[in-house]
């Protein structure tokens, strides 16, 4: 390579690095502006028991309300999230990590008749090491009147697996649920490869469309959860919403999408690296698809 061509190449690389740095700084400032917007957080209300941390707060207007009885509370740390022109497309919650939370989680799945669950933290990342389903095929977890049987585990991708679960109610029939376990987001402070995460999003989208077709267009919420129910889960929703809007030939603004999400899930996407990942993953989607 000639000296002149080397100089041109060095200049292009330097320009690219400068552009990337400027974009990064812009997005960090944009994220700061989002965090400083108190409009959404002003109406947050804790409806749980005790004195929870910030992550335990839910907005009253869109929290999931369990069908109550005299023996249990109707509260669960879970929020309905809208997609583009589809209200309550998702339910975002934290990974259940106690027996009481597991019972409430499956009660919610049953009452919402949700047929898709997306889990974005590894099972061994649960603080108390509790699993809310059985990993082995033909094994059953018993939750009050609900029995959760693992029917089949499919390894269709190196970094996630799909488990078919049969939920049987002692008095009210049964429900088949597909459980997507993503295993490539090991650290809450890191982000996964964009193309890899898009594979998961597209797999869930494809599977969800198939189920809706079989059920004559009936749309139950996709339950999305992670260790805190605030960052990774919201990244999934933000990217899925952006893809939906793009396919509907509508202008896509990650900033606007996240602004709306923060009005539905208290203090969500506070991790700036995850916010930037929403942009980079969606850009990668535009390049790939």
TrEMBL record:
- Listed PANTHER family: RECEPTOR-TYPE TYROSINE-PROTEIN PHOSPHATASE, TYROSINE-PROTEIN PHOSPHATASE 1
**Which part of the chain is the Tyrosine-protein phosphatase domain?**
59-285
InterPro entries reported in the protein's UniProt record: Protein-Tyr_Phosphatase, PTP_cat, Tyr_Pase_cat, Tyr_Pase_dom
- Put simply, this protein is called Protein tyrosine phosphatase
Q: What is the lineage of its organism?
A: Eukaryota, Metazoa, Ecdysozoa, Arthropoda, Hexapoda
Q: What CDD domains does the record point to?
A: PTPc
- Which molecular function GO terms apply here? protein tyrosine phosphatase activity
Tell me which species this is from.
Cotesia typhae
Q: Where does the Tyrosine specific protein phosphatases domain start and stop, copy by copy? A: 195-276
> What are the GO BP annotations of this UniProt entry?
anatomical structure morphogenesis; neuron development
